[in-house]
Design a protein that fits this description.
Elements (H helix, E strand, L loop, with lengths): L1 H7 L13 H21 L4 H18 L4 H13 L3 H25 L3 H6 L11 H14 L1 H16 L5 H16 L11 H20 L3 H7 L2 H19 L3 H6 L3 H16 L4 E2 L4 H6 L8 H9 L5 H9 L5 E2 L1
Parallel strand pairs: 1-2
Helix pairs in contact: 1-10, 1-12, 2-3, 2-4, 2-10, 3-5, 4-5, 4-9, 8-10, 9-10, 10-12
């Protein structure tokens, strides 16, 4: 419960970046893979089953979002640093055996274009912006300040007691990943989502350690409630402090004016005969069974790679390929 409170205390959790994108599934699968690895590292019975389960979840996370490779990387780093070669071999083999066959099928099915579209085309989205990077990193650190503070206490304590585990490795690697990759134009606070899911439980651990270091009288007064109530209080206050909204308004908001506009556009689009060209309304076209010919995001990447020219679109417009343009 307290970990959920820390998770929701990050202000950007109120945005659609964390709720309406593939990253949401990737975060869940990644932290589940790390959790399975934590269980496997402490179990003696059926240990191999947990490592294979962790490998399966790591692969599934990668197919949800390719940047989730950091979960598998963090677990491998933990095993290598501990020189646990037997477990490393078991885990890495599970990654390869579970991950490569679907990749081979997808490559064959798409005639070799799966990896090309997933990896190589993304090079067109790697323009560096120092202003963009510094703004996002500074705001992310400010937003993560409470959970970062307590997670740091936990990390230091676990390192000193020689109990450094997969979760700690994942927290450090995912935080470094967020800081290192948000520099590209188009990068967002969603890049810190992997770190947030790891820092939240560590924050609770650090908060409990901090309470234990206080005076006995304080410990008796706050009891167990303090480690739970403090993160939950942060979670409740977070959207109000940053967006001047409550969580109910954020999660259940239905802007009647905006919905009316969308319904109007949907009805207009539905009444138009022939092919239509839209820029940001491709979802409405899909709902009506229309073919989406122009997808601006994909065409931008192709244009950046020199594989597509806007002259093609201009020529189609001139010869009247579409009956209507919205």
């Amino acid at each position: 419960l307290a970990a959920v409170g820390f998770l929701l205390s990050f202000p950007c959790m109120a945005s659609s970046l964390f709720r309406n994108r593939p990253e949401s599934l990737a975060y869940a699968l990644s932290i589940s893979a790390v959790t399975a690895a934590v269980v496997a590292s402490h179990k003696r019975r059926r240990e191999s089953v947990w490592w294979i389960l962790s490998g399966f979840l790591s692969v599934a996370a990668c197919y949800a979002k390719q940047t989730s490779v950091i979960a598998g990387g963090a677990i491998c780093c933990y095993l290598v640093l501990n020189r646990d070669w037997k477990r490393f071999l078991l885990y890495s083999c599970s990654l390869l055996l579970l991950g490569l066959p679907p990749l081979a099928v997808l490559q064959y099915w798409t005639r070799g274009r799966y990896l090309y579209c997933l990896v190589f085309l993304m090079r067109g989205m790697t323009k560096f912006s120092l202003e963009h990077w510094s703004k996002h990193v500074i705001l992310a650190v400010i937003g993560l300040a409470p959970v970062l503070t307590y997670a740091a206490i936990s990390l230091i304590a676990e390192y000193r007691s020689d109990r450094f585990g997969p979760l700690h490795s994942y927290a450090l690697l995912s935080l470094a990943f967020g800081i290192a990759t948000v520099w590209r134009v188009g990068g967002s606070f969603g890049y810190f989502g992997w770190a947030l899911t790891a820092l939240a439980p560590l924050g609770v651990s650090g908060l409990q350690l901090a309470v234990c270091k206080t005076q006995p009288l304080v410990r008796h007064i706050v009891g167990f409630g303090y480690p739970v109530l403090w993160p939950l209080l942060l979670a409740v206050c977070s959207p109000w402090l940053t967006l001047r909204q409550t969580w109910t308004q954020v999660l259940l908001s239905t802007d009647a004016h905006y919905r009316a506009q969308v319904e109007t556009v949907y009805n207009v689009l539905d009444s138009l005969p022939g092919d239509t060209l839209t820029e940001q309304l491709a979802g409405l076209e899909v709902l009506q069974g229309r073919q989406v010919i122009v997808e601006t995001g994909a065409l931008y990447l192709l244009a950046e790679e020199g594989l597509w020219s806007p002259d093609v679109l201009a020529a189609d417009l001139r010869r009247g390929r579409w009956s209507y343009v919205m």
